[in-house]
Design brief:
This protein is mainly α and 244 residues long. The longest helix has 30 residues. The relative contact order is 0.10.
């Protein structure tokens, strides 16, 4: 029996990475093991998915673990699409929470769909390409000096732009207000929003660039942005209420 399993295990790793699982092994696995030249992100994903794939039958019975495995595989093979969908889902949840906290009794579906669109079409892809650009610019270095430079660049470019864009999008598209009202609102309240951002996001950025693999930085950022999105929604909503 041991010899049979050893032979099956060898066949599992042969054939150019084809998935031929050993008996009693797993129902899903990555298509190949890590090789020389793979990035740290690829090795991390392979290790994570393999830890689920080679578990006992009882462990494989967990839907949560299967879901995580599938998510990691999608993130590895379709990173842009996966990050865009993740940003859209988190934007939706964030807006639902914001609507409830602001006292809205009936869920505003139009507003919700517009937030999902923003997450899918802009926030996810923007973060994906931003982190790739920063990593190429600094050649993947992770020393403290390089991380500090990445954080400074991020906070002086993408942070002010994204906060400004959100307030414009919320006023013009989500609420349908005229530009004159949106402009007045931004002039009055944008500085406070950006100041709050600079007291919070640099720490998140440092942790993200220093400790999180490139492939997962947008996901980590999106998870933290979940709470930040609630803050921005409530801020924009309170300003709108004052206008009314």
């Amino acid at each position: 029996m041991a010899a049979k399993r050893a032979d099956e295990g060898r066949r599992w790793g042969e054939g150019g990475g084809e998935a031929v699982p050993p008996a009693g092994g797993c129902s899903m696995a990555t298509k190949r093991s890590p090789e020389v030249g793979d990035s740290d992100d690829d090795r991390w994903i392979w290790t994570a998915t393999s830890s689920f794939a080679y578990g006992d039958d009882d462990r494989m019975g967990s839907l949560a673990k299967k879901g995580l495995q599938q998510y990691l595989l999608q993130l590895q093979h379709h990173p842009l699409r996966t990050k865009a969908i993740t940003a859209a889902v988190l934007s939706a949840i964030s807006d639902i929470v914001s609507q409830k906290l602001s006292g809205i009794q009936k869920l505003q579906l139009k507003r919700l769909l517009l937030k999902v669109l923003l997450g899918f079409a802009y926030l996810g892809p923007f973060g994906h390409f931003l982190h790739i650009l920063l990593d190429k610019l600094f050649k993947g270095k992770k020393d403290s000096k390089t991380v500090a430079k990445k954080v400074i660049i991020e906070q002086l470019t993408s942070s002010p732009w994204n906060n400004f864009l959100f307030l414009v999008y919320y006023g013009l598209v989500v609420e349908g207000r005229p530009w004159s009202q949106v402009k007045t609102k931004i002039k009055k309240d944008y500085p406070a929003v950006q100041y709050t951002s600079w007291t919070f996001w640099p720490v998140v950025g440092w942790v993200n660039h220093q400790y999180v693999p490139l492939q997962f930085r947008v996901i980590f950022h999106s998870l933290i942005a979940f709470g930040w999105g609630i803050f921005l929604n409530l801020q924009a909503r309170s300003i709108a209420a004052k206008k009314d």
